[in-house]
Amino acid sequence: GENVEQHPSTLSVQEGDSAVIKCTYSDSASNYFPWYKQELGKRPQLIIDIRSNVGEKKDQRIAVTLNKTAKHFSLHITETQPEDSAVYFCACGSNYKLTFGKGTLLTVNP
Amino acid sequence: GAVVSQHPSWVICKSGTSVKIECRSLDFQATTMFWYRQFPKQSLMLMATSNEGSKATYEQGVEKDKFLINHASLTLSTLTVTSAHPEDSSFYICSARDPQLETQYFGPGTRLLVL
Lengths: 110, 115
Fold this sequence. Notes:
The structure holds two protein chains of two kinds.
Chain A: E1 4-7, E2 10-14, E3 19-25, E4 32-38, E5 45-51, E6 56-59, E7 62-67, E8 72-77, E9 86-94, E10 97-100, E11 104-109
Parallel strand pairs in A: 2-11
Antiparallel strand pairs in A: 1-3, 3-8, 4-5, 4-9, 6-7, 7-8, 9-10, 9-11
Chain B: E1 4-7, E2 10-13, E3 19-25, E4 32-38, E5 44-51, E6 57-58, E7 67-73, E8 76-81, E9 90-98, E10 103-106, E11 110-114
Parallel strand pairs in B: 2-11
Antiparallel strand pairs in B: 1-3, 3-8, 4-5, 4-9, 5-6, 7-8, 9-10, 9-11
């Protein structure tokens, strides 16, 4: 089955700096790559996703890049704010079944 | 985004009892729903895929007789934890796949504590 590796497990940045989280996957058949943000005790919220026919997607301060050849994809958050502090999960899948990374605890220090 | 509800939000029960958790898609029809389990500070682990009108597909290591799943309509899936034990205590989260957007949206989760 699919194996997803996510790095780093924790990330601390100063407000205004950029944050980058990276994931690698094993199954070349995976064609859907969403990112979720989960605040403590709450549900994961979809923040951005990308499909295999696209190399990059941007939504305001958030961007995702995908390299299918190398089987990795990354989340980029620019101009970070304290409210960006949360656990971020990458996921990938095909036929609608998702495998999640282990998560990255992002802390944005004011 | 789409709205998915889950009920109850938390439950405390005695060991040996059964607990039913409901997952509803409120503004779209979901032919496929998913049930996940999440331990503290860990990732989401897929337990099973629930398909409307057919049997659920369970992941390896998940006991289908212990975690009963029913997807009787396009907007409702239920997970029943039978004969719950303390080791079943966890955060259970459902998600529903919006077929038009081909995206999964999560419910708010159910925190189960078995005493």
